[in-house]
Amino acid sequence: MGAPMTRTLPGxxxxxxxxxxxxxxxxxxxxxxxxxxxxxxxxxVPMEVDDPTTALLDGATELTLHDALARAAARQPDAPAxxxxxxxxxxxxxxxxxxxxxxxxxxxxFAPGDVVGFMINKRPExxxxxxxxxxxxxxxxxxxYKLNLDRVRDQFQxxxxxxxxxxxxxxxxxxxxxxxxxxxxxxxxxxGPGRLGESHYGMADDQPSTFDPGDFExxxxxxxxxxxxxxxxxxxxxxxTTHRNIQHNAVDTIAGLGFRADDVFLGMFSVFAHPHELFxxxxxxxxxxxxxxxxxxxxxxxxxxxxxxxxxxxxxxFYEMMLDWVRPRDGSGxxxxxxxxxxxxxxxxxxxxxxxxxxxxRMEEAFGCTFLPVWGCTEATGxxxxxxxxxxxxxxxxxxxxxxxxxxxxxxxxxRDLPPGEVGELLMRGPAVxxxxxxxQPEETVxxxxxxxxxxxDLCTMDEDGFVRFVSRKSEMLKIGGIRVYPLEIEAVIKEHxxxxxxxxxxxxxxxxxxxxxxxxxxxxxSGLTVRGLQSYCRGRLAVYKVPRxxxxxxxxxxxxxxxxxxxxxLRTPPDPTRDEREG
Length: 584
Fold this sequence. Notes:
Blueprint: E1 5-8, E2 37-38, E3 45-46, H1 51-57, H2 65-75, E4 80-83, E5 88-90, H3 91-108, E6 115-119, H4 124-136, E7 139-142, H5 149-159, E8 161-166, H6 171-175, E9 187-189, E10 199-200, E11 223-228, E12 238-242, H7 243-257, E13 265-267, H8 280-285, E14 289-290, H9 297-307, E15 311-314, H10 316-322, E16 347-350, H11 357-367, E17 370-377, E18 382-386, E19 401-402, E20 407-411, E21 424-429, H12 442-448, E22 449-450, E23 453-462, E24 468-473, E25 478-480, E26 483-485, H13 487-495, E27 500-510, E28 514-523, H14 531-539, E29 550-553, H15 567-572
Parallel strand pairs: 1-3, 4-14, 6-7, 6-8, 8-9, 9-10, 13-14, 13-15, 15-16, 16-17, 28-29
Antiparallel strand pairs: 1-2, 4-5, 11-12, 17-18, 18-19, 20-21, 21-23, 22-23, 23-24, 25-26, 27-28
């Protein structure tokens, strides 16, 4: 793999940090500070961080989340913290409300170590509840209430959820979970008294605005959060996440991506998909963050203008949808009065899907700011690879290279390091990686975490400069005529067709040929694209055995709430080469 990359923060010489994990952490090497050597590339990249930010990051990984909140409230009590359409809180107001909710939780019967499910929309109470759990020692567990009852019940049983914060709109789902929630006092409605529980958020108004931890006090290595995988490839898993895991990812992404104390952050991922990323960077720097419960691109574009958002995080397709509602930077456009001024934006952070060179260039031209492709995962506690933000130091089409604090390897089936350019499984480690594994899923934990390295199940290449390129999920690789075929390569070609809006390629079986590629395609309205026409297009750009044998035109490619393609929904639908759901 070549010599490891050295990444240095100005004014921060390399040094050993205190151990990042709990006793018995399987990471064998002492955790590294950002001044030390990382596996995976061969060049030096200075990480520019201004002095005020550097001062705030020093020692931050020794803080619990609620300690970081208290620090922000003491340092700048009247500065804006949580911004939403419903209300806006300063750091002092946020700290006081977190205390009241923590006191309410203790008053109704929650105890340190209890796992608390949150089945609520993206609203301020998500962040407040998360931090209240941290302050009183409970474990925050976001619940994907859009899954079917059996999947949600499995999460409750596996996590051992003791009680929930919920909304009246979730009552139908909650009724099916009541056998697992015997204490109605531990059912807390955030939108007023509810019929299935005895507690509600308004009761916090009568609680003190200070909090006494009593006999229990969390440490940075206390588990505070079950961070769930999306379930796009199977049963969701809850990664046991500590304060230190979260703080390390916050520190590393602030330093590595250039997040600043004057940034106004808006995260667009689902409320049950890594909700700590809605606020964890802002918490350390004392910068404002916006909480909005909408996926309407016009609403979001207008919110960017209203709140002065400078940094967004979303899937690439969402930025595409926003373009219809954004005023061009050059002032053109037939109806500028109906378009939002998003000139405050400086960074569009984009994860969850592949970003090609054409998309990146087009987005930067349209928005007039930096488009920043990133890669992360539940087990990394957030972003671990980034292709930028400096345009001069990125490679178009790459997934990215390691941000400080993470180490990556590409290995073969026997765990041996591969030379640059060869396809293998991507492994990672670092103090933000959740090496305690998945809650009550020991077999999955043993398979995923080996000798301190997390096995991502992503097939990738890594070049001489440490840039990683995603090729395929290991489970999604096709074997056609005994030859390895990667769906992403086929998808990238099909997406270049001017009539194609979206595409996903999965495996299918034919009686004679065995495994073949099946493409699910959505097209622009009025398109006359045919199966033969698309296959002919692909033959001019792909080896013949990679051309999809089955092409289906769907009204739209199904998506999960977090914006990722719902491949399980595709696979549950039997292949049908004659399917064409387009109108006309």
